[in-house]
Design brief:
single chain; Glutaredoxin; alpha/beta; 148 residues; five-stranded mixed sheet; 37% helix
Length: 148
């Protein structure tokens, strides 16, 4: 059960209530799905920047990478929505221009502001919790997290 607390002023419009509910209901990390429902949820969410990590679901480092993304999300959940995608999705990998040798890869971008072309990317050994936090800071041009 999700319990939300609102200040009286925040209840001014249904859109504000919807945004608060969506923000509270969003998990720390989510698998990227190319479907209309997830797209609508992302569009309705008050945070518009996406952190997308591409990992090979069959690789022995998969759980470590998911844990890494989860740790970064705990710090940056007000700055970016954190999603992961399976690198076996050839269409997505080709669309993003990622080579197998660059996996795992993390991208941060705003779909409405240039998409992945306007974003930043980390690959391979740089995909660590600290690397993801620094990537987010570089994207926003500010430091929004405390050092680990």
């Amino acid at each position: 059960m999700i319990v939300l607390k609102f200040a009286k002023a925040e209840l001014a419009t249904p859109d504000i209530v919807k945004e608060k509910i969506e923000a509270a209901a969003w998990p720390l990390i989510m698998k990227f799905e190319r479907d209309a429902e997830q797209r609508r949820r992302v569009e309705a969410h008050p945070v518009k920047t996406l952190m997308l990590m591409l990992v090979d679901h069959q690789d022995f480092t998969f759980q470590t990478m998911i844990d890494t993304l989860t740790q970064a999300a705990k710090t940056n959940n007000q700055r970016a929505l954190h999603l992961w995608a399976d690198a076996s999705d050839d269409t997505l990998i080709k669309r993003l221009g990622i080579k197998e040798s660059e996996l795992p890869t993390a991208l941060i971008f705003n779909p409405a502001k240039g998409g992945t072309r306007g974003g930043k990317r980390l690959t391979d050994d740089d995909v660590t919790v600290d690397g993801l936090l620094k990537l987010t800071d570089a994207y926003f041009g500010t430091s929004g997290h405390k050092e680990l």
